[in-house]
Amino acid sequence: SMKQNRLDDAVEYVNTSLYSGLVMCAGLLVLVAGMVFKIDSIIAVRPADLADVKLLMIFVGIGFVIATGSSVFGTAAYCRNKVYVNSLINMGGAFIRVIFTVGLMMLFPPVIWLVSLANLMSTIGMASAKFISFKKLMPDIKFKRKFFNGMKLKELLSSGAWNAINQLGSM
Predict the structure, then answer these.
(1) Mind listing the pLDDT tens digit for each residue in 116-144?
(2) Cβ proximity of 88 and 109 under 8 Å
(3) Which residues touch 43 (CB under 8 Å, ≥6 apart)?
(4) Residue 39: phi, psi to the nearest 5?
(5) pTM of the predicted model, to two decimals?
(6) Closest residue by Cα to residue 61 from 27, 95, 85
(7) What is the per-residue pLDDT for 23?
(8) Which whole number is the average pLDDT over 92-114?
């Protein structure tokens, strides 16, 4: 829609994707919470390791939800033919992950959840950077629930573009 100068369509597609993604994230949070509380019923975990495994699952789950919910913001770079912006954000995310992993391992005794905490910090940084880049690259796109369009959602889901939009944000 942006390539064809149909701003109204672009606003509806972005908002439909964003708000549908947020609903999906709410469902994922419920799923993650259930898994965390019942993790010892799902996989065999020694009682001594249960707290560490739960923290690991919490950080991984929250990171997954944030990455999924923010994936729509990565589409701005593609729409504006500035794919390098997402590459720079991904590089920054890798840098944040390394700094946090090394820093946390130096400050605390090494446990598996520290790596997932570093990953979460990286995901938060990348989601923030993608949101900022979206606002700079596509200032005409406003986020308002009134721009959600059920027909656009049906079109996105039926054409497979829904998955493509989510995958664009993670490239």
Answers:
(1) 999 999 999 999 999 999 999 999 888 88
(2) no
(3) 53
(4) -60, -35
(5) 0.81
(6) 27
(7) 85
(8) 95
The vertex-135 CA angle with 134 and 139, nearest 5°, equals 115
The CA distance from 123 to 117, in Å, is: 10
Return the amino acid letter for 5. Answer: N
CB atoms near residue 96 (< 10 Å):
19
Amino acid at 78: Y
E strands, the chain, where? none
The mean pLDDT value for 47-51 works out to 92
Residue 115 token pair:
């790596």
C-alpha 46/C-alpha 62 separation (Å) is 23
Q: Are 70 and 130 in contact (CB under 8 A)?
A: yes
Q: Which two tokens stand for residue 171?
A: 């490239």
What long-range pairs does 20-27 form, CB within 8 A, spacing at least 24?
20/148, 20/153, 20/156, 20/162, 21/68, 21/69, 21/71, 21/72, 21/166, 22/69, 24/68, 25/65, 25/68, 25/69
In order, the DSSP letters of 72-91 are GGGHHHHHTT-HHHHHHHHH
Which tokens go with 50?
Answer: 């249960």
pLDDT category at 171 given cuts 50, 70, 90 is very low
